[in-house]
Structure formats: structure tokens, C-alpha cells
């Protein structure tokens, strides 16, 4: 079945450091890929998406590129802020159909300090 | 803004009790989902619904049931709560069709079964 593997957390960085959170996937066909973020005490919200190979999703300074050859969708940000502290989930859906079921990774907690 | 609300943020129940978790969305979304979130396991889909009175099992439906009598409301029912159902429960909703991959989440209900 479909699966998503994320790097283990927590990841602790100083403010303005470069961030990479690794995500690889296993899926048949051509899935769409997503990063969701969960801020403390809140539900998940969509951060960015890519629906086909070589697409780059971007939002709020975060970027991720859909790499079919390496089945990866790594999340990057050039300069993190304390407000980026959250749990980040990589996810995929095999198709955008009637009720697209998302398969999530286990989440990576990011802690940014001053 | 899409709002997904859940009836309780925290709930404590005893083993064997019948538990109802309620979810309401205000954006006329067709799809609704129930997940549980556990450390190291990420989010796992329990049930979803793509229309009133329609339901489909997710990856871990055992011990749960659902009800969708109105479009805006999706209830998760634990018929006889057990300690292994202690978890964070997240409700989500999405549109039908090509935009259905973007799910909007509620803040979650942390359920403790003693």
C-alpha cells in the first residue's frame, strides 16, 4: 500500500538557520504530495502541495519539489523563525477523486530557538 | 474562512462507556473524515463520508462507528470505550472533486479512557 516516511524529530534549530525535513514516499501511479503543518493547540493546515513530477510547491517561505526519480518531497526553508515551531506532516493522495484519502507520515516536530 | 469545530477539546471517560465525538463544518463540504493521531504513528484514518448517510471505513475502523445525518455534522462513536482508544481525535472536511485533497481540520479532541 501507499506509505510516507519522514525523518525523525525533534529538529531543533536556531532562528535564521536553514531547514530541511526529509520525506520519501511509496505509491503506485502518480500521487499528489503535500506538506501539512500543525501549530501548538491547533488542527492541521495545508502548507503547500505539488500534483505532478518536478512541480515545486511554495508558501510562507517554505518550498518542496516533487522528485519522482527519488520518490521524495523534502521540505526546505532558507531562514526559520521562532513562529515556525510546529509539527510538519508529509502526505500523499493517489488521486484527486470523490473523497481523496490522505496517507500521512508520522510527523516531524520543529523547535526554533532564539 | 473554513471552520471545523469539535465538541470538546478534552474528554475523560471510563472503560466501557459509550462516547460521542461531534464535528461540525460550516463551509458546505461534501467530504468529512475522522482520524486519530498518536505519537510515532502520525494520523490514521478511521472513517470518512462523502455524503449524508454515506460512510466508508478507513484504515482502522475497529471499535468505532460513525453517523452523518446532516451534511455539516459528522459524529464518531465509540460503542464501548477501551484504554487503547486513548488518543487525539481529529475531524476534517473537504470539497468534492479535484479540490478534495485539501482537507480542513478541527483543533482535535484529546480523549482519555481510564
Structure description:
The complex is a heterodimer of chains A (114) and B (114). The termini of chain A are far apart. Chain A is an all-beta fold and 114 residues long. In chain A, a hairpin with a 5-residue loop joins strand 5 (32-38) and strand 6 (44-50). Chain A has strands at residues 3-6, 11-14, 19-21, 23-26, 32-38, 44-50, 56-59, 62-65, 75-77, 86-93, 103-104, 108-113. In chain A, strands 2, 5, 6, 10, 11 and 12 form a six-stranded mixed sheet that branches. A four-stranded antiparallel sheet of chain A has the order 3-9-8-7, with no helix packed on it. Chain A has a two-stranded antiparallel sheet with strand order 1-4. Chain B has no helices and eleven strands. With 114 residues, chain B is mostly beta strands. Chains A and B meet through strand 6 of A and strand 5, strand 9 and strand 10 of B.
The helix/strand order of chain B is EEEEEEEEEEE
Order of helices and strands of chain A: EEEEEEEEEEEE
Question: Based on DSSP secondary structure assignment, what is the total number of beta strands of chain B?
Answer: 11
Which residues of chain B sit in consecutive blocks of at least 5 with pLDDT less than 50?
none
Based on DSSP secondary structure assignment, what is the total number of beta strands of chain A?
Answer: 12
Average pLDDT taken over every residue of chain A:
92
Number of helical regions of chain A: 0
Find the structural class of chain B using helix and strand composition.
mainly beta
What spatial form of chain A do the alpha-carbon principal axes imply? globular
- List low-pLDDT spans of chain A: none
Would you tell me the overall average pLDDT of chain B?
92
How big is the Rg of chain B?
13 Å
Structural class of chain A: mainly beta
Q: Strand count, sense and closure of the main sheet of chain B?
A: 7 strands, mixed
N-to-C terminal Cα separation of chain B, in Å?
37 Å
Q: Based on the structure, what is the oligomeric state of the protein chains?
A: heterodimer
Strand content of chain A: over 45%
How far do the termini of chain A sit from each other?
A: 41 Å
Number of DSSP helical runs of chain B: 0
**Biggest interface and which pair forms it?**
A-B, 23 and 31 residues
* Basic shape of chain B: globular
Amino acid at each position: 500500500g501507499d506509505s510516507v516516511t519522514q525523518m525523525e524529530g525533534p529538529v531543533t534549530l536556531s532562528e535564521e538557520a536553514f531547514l530541511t525535513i526529509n520525506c520519501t514516499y511509496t505509491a503506485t501511479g502518480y500521487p499528489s504530495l503535500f506538506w501539512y503543518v500543525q501549530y501548538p493547540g491547533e488542527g492541521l493546515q495545508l502548507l503547500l502541495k505539488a500534483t505532478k513530477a518536478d512541480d515545486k510547491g511554495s508558501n510562507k517561505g517554505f518550498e518542496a519539489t516533487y522528485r519522482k526519480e527519488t520518490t521524495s518531497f523534502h521540505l526546505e526553508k532558507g531562514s526559520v523563525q521562532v513562529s515556525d515551531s510546529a509539527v510538519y506532516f508529509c502526505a500523499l493522495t493517489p488521486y484527486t477523486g470523490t473523497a481523496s484519502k490522505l496517507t500521512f507520515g508520522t510527523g516531524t516536530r520543529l523547535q526554533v530557538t532564539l | 474562512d473554513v471552520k471545523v469545530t469539535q465538541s470538546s477539546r478534552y474528554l475523560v471517560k471510563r472503560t466501557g462507556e459509550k462516547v460521542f465525538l461531534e464535528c461540525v463544518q460550516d463551509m458546505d463540504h461534501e467530504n468529512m473524515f475522522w482520524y486519530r493521531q498518536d505519537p510515532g504513528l502520525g494520523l490514521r484514518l478511521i472513517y470518512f463520508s462523502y455524503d449524508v448517510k454515506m460512510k466508508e471505513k478507513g484504515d482502522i475502523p475497529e471499535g468505532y462507528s460513525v453517523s452523518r445525518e446532516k451534511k455539516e455534522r459528522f459524529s464518531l462513536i465509540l460503542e464501548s470505550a477501551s484504554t487503547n482508544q486513548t488518543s487525539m481525535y481529529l475531524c476534517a472536511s473537504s470539497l468534492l472533486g479535484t479540490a478534495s485533497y485539501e482537507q480542513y481540520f478541527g483543533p482535535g479532541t484529546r480523549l482519555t479512557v481510564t
